[in-house]
Amino acid sequence: MKNRAYIFILMLLWGCTKQNKHNESISNPQIDSIQQLVNLVKTAKELSIEDQITYLKIAETQLNGIENDSIQLDELSKISLAYKRIGDSIGFRKSNAVLRDNSKEKKLNQTLGYSNWDLAAFLQSNGVLDSAFYYYNKALDNFEQLPVDSTSKSLKARMLYNMSRIQDSYKDYLGGEISTTTAIEIFDDLGDDYRLYNCYNVLGVLASGMGDPKKARESYEKAREYLNKSNVSNKTQLGWLNQNNIASIYLNSEDFEKAKEAYSVLLTDKDLEEKSPGIYEKALGSLAYSFLKADGNIEKAEELIDEAFEVNSESGDLQDRARLNYFYSEILAAKGDTTKAIAQAKESYAIATETYNNDRSLDALRLLNTLDPKNSNNYFSEYYQLNEAIKEEERTKRDKFARIRMETDDIIEENQILMKEKELWAGAFLLIILFSITAMVIISLYVSNNRLKFKQKQQESNQEIYNLMLSQQGKFEEGKQLEQKRISEELHDGILGEMLGIRLILGGLNEREDQASVEQRATLIEKLRDVEEEIRTISHELNHSSYEKFHNFIVSLENMIDGIQKSSGISCTFTYDSKVPWDNLLGDIKINAYRIIQEALKNCVKHAKSKNVSISFQTMDDKLKLIIQDDGVGFDTSRKKKGIGLKNIISRVKKIKGALDITSQLGKGTAINVTIPAKYVEAKIPEETNVLNA
């Protein structure tokens, strides 16, 4: 009813607009209707996501009624941004692609620039930084083709600023400095104090990365000057951030006395804790470390670091948590508590690895190498491998950024001139290169294909080995079952038949008429009937038990759980529905369920630090319900990047067409719920001999 009411209101507004502006050539009812729909999505908080998407789709269909290409694409740009704002990434990507294609076709550089900018910002927010840099650069090219005015100049400078931030992420400090300096020249010409503050702030970050603390501090101080001249509403919060940046320069350059003074000045502001707890926590941790290094004041350092941990526990910021663990490790080491210091350093390394904070991971490994000399070789090996991987990734990204920046019209034109001058030589050389590349591609494909075949065969072999492992555990019990069946048949066909013959003979002899014989034979016949009934009962019991399946799959799970419990010290409980014919489940279900439980228990040991884990395998209608619950540290389920173990569980649930639900809270444990369709193979049990009616 609510949706119908909204649509009715929109149609009424559309009709009123059309009637009131019928004689105005500038007005367009389609534009008014589209704008009303987009505004409704922006302002109506009670609308569900489904309703918002529906209204945006209606707005998209109404674009066909707009003949002006420029206006049509402007409205599509607003719709695309609305998709992005409500978190519909599919709707945004589709509408943005249409917007970019049509803008490029109609050579509308401003609209094309904005659409490339939107896509770059979307990719940057999702961590795809190299692609974001590419589209920022394309937007820059689009804006450079606009008529030169204050708007186009500002747009170019903003793209350069965004590109410099990404370059800093991959330690392309020189390239980032060039981009930022160019942006500063433009903003300085425009008198844009706020964006000059932003640029000098990034310039300080880049200088700090290049190991130039003096230039970094000068840049941050310059940023403060422009911030004070600007009219932004959040000037106080930005001032705190600026002061924290300046203090961090002293801290990183090991001028701990000045760092202590700078952080103390920052913490004197009483509003900092309430309005910016993140900066407050960073300043507390850094001040604690400064007291330790400047004065050796361990007591004060512990007091401050404890308060920082309390603030962090409320925010749940793992990046800062790793930093605090690192600082606390050094404090404990100075205190002489090496064991706890090593534990804190390991915690810092684990969190840094989980959050992909490579710099913090390297710092933690260096500290562990100092604190734990017995395992120095292991820490050094991990440090070396991680450092080399980081360098290679950064080198690759820097080269990619350089290639993107070089794809300008001037470079292309220069290359064309050079190609014409050396056309003959280049042609021959190109043929050789093409031939070599083709040969390399063919060889590479051949090798890759063989590798894939090998991996596939290896996987099939692993599954076959696992199935054999499961079946082997039942061999002994199957032997028992066969022996029970044999005894049952012997009772029925041998003893029972013989007893029946004796009873019949005695029945014939009973025709003798003397009273003693009659009574004696009647007694014997009655006893034979009792024996016959007893044998029949035993035969039935043995024959029935021979067909009861031994739970090899459940035994395998119990053995695996027991092994992990003994090796890790975690207390594990395992319950299952005894009525389910577990061994008749499809092989894929058993294999993947086994691996899901195994992977979940590994995570409990390696990451969750659990003390107790419960595993439950029950039935629910025609489905199986697997629940794995621990009391570990938990994790943030909303984070986009997942570990390998969690990805493996997700992949295995998909293979068996199951449904996965993971709930977790920091400090309160994790629950993994897997719902699996119950599918069985056809039971191969021979027909039971009816001994009663034989």
| Ends distance | 71 Å
Tell the overall outline. Answer: extended
Oligomeric description of these chains: single chain
- Classify the secondary structure makeup into a structural class: mainly alpha
Mean pLDDT: 81
The major pleated sheet works out as: 5 strands, mixed
Number of strands: 5
Beta-strand content:
5-15%
Q: How many helices in DSSP terms?
A: 27
Helix amount: over 70%
Uncertain regions spanning at least 5 consecutive residues: 1-6, 12-26, 544-550, 684-694
Question: Largest beta sheet: what is the strand line-up?
Answer: 1-2-3-5-4
What's the alpha carbon Rg, rounded to whole Å?
Answer: 38 Å
Give your account of this protein's structure.
- Helices cover 75% and strands 6% of the residues.
- The protein has 694 residues and is mainly alpha-helical.
- Strands 1-2-3-5-4 form a 5-stranded mixed sheet, covered by helices on one side.
Supply database-style keywords:
5 strands; extended; 27 helices; 75% helix; 694 residues; mainly alpha; disordered N terminus
Give a quick rundown of the structure.
The chain has 694 residues and is mostly helical.
